[in-house]
Amino acid sequence: MSDLVHDATDADFADTVLLADRPTLVEFTADWCGPCRQMAPVLDEIAREQPGLAVAKLDVDRNPETAARYGVLSMPTFVVFEHGEPVKQFVGARPKRRILADLADVLNTEAPAAR
Q1: 21-63 pLDDT per residue, tens
Q2: For this structure, is 90 an active site residue?
Q3: Domain boundaries, the chain
């Protein structure tokens, strides 16, 4: 992933996600998860194109405390945090257009038109 996508850990999750000054999209991921690997370039693009959104990933095998705290059982799971609280969650790989539609209210944008 790009340097725009932060590798979050149990140790720094509070500082980098919960105390973030903007909404943060976190992908709960695992090295063995094929769909998670497919999401990497999509998240890079979103991080580059949406400066009002922070993007992070958290490896659930290396950081089980945070994954358990948010009840993550399937990968990839995406959770959006605002002001230290989870405000939106969705599970499964999806195209960039659908992620942006899911985030439209958080980003205060219109959802992309479906094709």
Answers
A1: 999 999 999 999 999 999 999 999 999 999 999 999 999 999 9
A2: no
A3: 5-107
Task: Collect contacts of 7-11 with beta carbons under 8 A, ≥24 apart.
Answer: 7/56, 7/57, 7/58, 7/59, 8/56, 8/57, 8/58, 8/63, 8/66, 9/58, 9/62, 9/63, 9/66, 10/63, 10/64, 10/65, 10/66
Choosing from 36, 60, 103, 107, the catalytic residue is 36
36 catalytic? Reply is: yes
Q: Domain 5-107 is in which class?
A: alpha beta
Identify the active-site residue in 5, 8, 33, 79: 33
